[in-house]
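Complex record, two chains
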Amino acid sequence: MPPNKIPDNKDEAPPPAQSSFSQQTSKVRNFFSIPAPVKTLFDKVPVLTYPSNELPQRAPKPARIPSLYVFIKEEDAAAGRPSYNPSCLKWQAFLNIAGVNHRLVPSSNHASPTGVLPFLLPAANSSNSPQETSAPIISNKLIKYAEKLGKTVVETSSMRYEAYQSLIDHRIRSAWLYTLYLEPLNFSAVAYQLYVSPNSSNPLVRASISHQLRSAAEAELLKHTSIIDTDDLYSEADKAFEALSILLGGDSWFFGCSTPTLFDASIFAYTQLLLDDELGWKEKKLCRALRRRANLVQHRERLLVKYFGGS
Amino acid sequence: MASNSGSEDELLESLRNPHTEKLDQRAKELREREEAQTQKAAQRLRELISSNSTLPVTISSIRLIGSGPQHTRRSFLDGLFAPILSANRGSSYKLSEALQEAGAVADKLRRFDIYHDVSMFVDKPDPTDPSSTPTDIDIWLQARERGRINLKTGTDIGNVEGSAYGNLLWRNIFGGAESLSLNASKGTRTRSSYQAVFDAPILSDPDKRITLDALASSTYKPWASHEEVLKGAGVKYSWATKSGTRHQVGYTGAWRQTTNLAADASPTVRNDAGDSVKSSITHTWTADRRDHPLLPSRGYLLKTVSEIAGWGPLRGDVAFWKSEVETAAAMPISNGVSFTTGLRAGVLYPLPVGFGGPAQPSRIHDRFQLGGPTDIRGFNIGGLGPRDGRDSVGGDVYAAASANLLIPFPRVAKDTPLRLQLFANGGRLLALKDTSSSDVYKTIAQLADGLPSLAAGVGVVYAHPVARFELNFSLPLVMRRGEDARKGLQFGVGINFL
């Protein structure tokens, strides 16, 4: 846009020239803006505005608390029970530990801005106009979100923290992916019921989703190794449980903290699901490896009772 | 002698400087004479036929003379020709009847879209042929088959959408006018689309068709912050009645995914994200008696669409009964000025999936959307109805109407498909709050609460043979809070305008 002020060094320019120049610039501006008579016409319409239309039945009721979108059954969501997906459960446990009040919404990866659950949708703020929807908060922004709400988030600053975290994120996760998706018995008994059948009643769609899930799990495992060695996966997970059991020792929470941290939440995400008999595991190798570590089993009980009402 | 040489000079002169006007004149005269002759011949033929119109004749044979390779099956042509042969009818024709029947056959042949041009001749069989009777006539049809494979690529620009496409058409596959069309396109809104359509006439009748189709597409829907990924297949049967109305009955199965949500998608759209399968039967009935489909000046259109999904043996994940009615009427006023009006309405009635159980509330894919340059001008696409944040989430019940006055352009011939228009249009789109039948009736009654959302304006209409273009200046007059009206200019391209 051309400057509408004459630079200082041209002050000596005769006034008529200046006015014609500014006239010109205003002409250029006016060409692109709405002419005044049209603008006044635009301001006069609409002549009549009624209240807004009501939303359809499936639209969620507005809530005063934030909504956490997770993999969960409808009835479990209402009761605040744990999600059946480890990453969702980790952050659900974290929010419970941090004391961030939220409601659970059963959902699927399609709903997420990143393509994976969980994510948090902040409560509809009364100060927001109804035209605006607050942006979702993806999982790795949840610590900041909790801190912003003034919740105390205990962070472990141990040097060993990252090494142990990677045990969970790699060894245990790989064994989990294998046991859930690639053990045929567990896939049909557990994964199919949780991740496939809720999506659609159509057998073709179910077959397609099953195939997608299994090949995604396989691709994920092949990222770290060239062949999938079952015994190796299980023995690595067993070693990881052993190391975590030694780390916990006789303490209530990991790293000797007085309250649980995100680390406790991330180990709970797996121990809760492996020890939950309601899921109906058929091939229990990984479950047995965990049950041998009594202090990890007690750790899960402790979290479940304290933050999930013992359900 | 002198005079002679003078005329010679004249001749040479005229050869040297030919009078172009004179030549033109002569050519014109020649043309006129030829025209007059053909006209006279036609006239004579007409007279001959009309004076002999009651002459009893029998059609003894119909022959198709093709040039080039012939792929059309004999049995397919038999189905077309056999019914009018006198031997199969058991009675003789009047000459006029016979010609009419033969003309109808030639017309059918044209409509299969497998021949370039079909022309008809009538002849008397050789009287020395012992098998012929004195009343026999022979019908000769001359036609050239069209190429069997047609490959086409191109670009399209439509309503805020640009796309590139490739199309392969395989005609007359089994010699019975069957066709297979494969289509692939990529665009700004229809991100990708792959479609295969197999179409075949039944019993050699161009008005009875069976169509099998398969579709995989991905469409960006910015008015509801999501992308719809669709995989589906269907079968349709269409036929025309004697009175000229058309029916189509079809089954469709489709797997829909609401995915790739925008960062600021509303909770309503987030709740509907994921998979759903629709298994439905649709019936469409159309009576189009307008003089021009894109810019009518006389006549009316009636169309109903009914769909039942999910109920009973259909299964799937969604269940509803959907009915839509569309009407349009045009009437000339004077001096090329015409008035057109349109009315559309629809309702989605929730049903239980399978046999019994609770009725299913509707999802965003199945609900109606209203607004945009091709239906309610002066509103953006999906601009009317319930909105959550910026998202137009659709409704279950709607009604929309429009009135347009079309005026010929000053200083432009009236037969040019260019008009000035004055219009007013409006409508309502409402969502059900529960699945009970009483709520459906209550919501329908609610359509009449207050004034409908309304917009009016002026514009220019151009009816190109393939689509109608409109550029309008419009202002919203009445609206609901949150509805997305458009003040000022709006451009629309489409084939079906309200």
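Note: The interface with chain B takes residues 34, 38, 41-42, 45-60, 62, 67, 69, 105, 107-108, 110-113, 121, 130-133, 135-136, 199-202, 204-205, 208-209 of chain A (CB under 8 Å).
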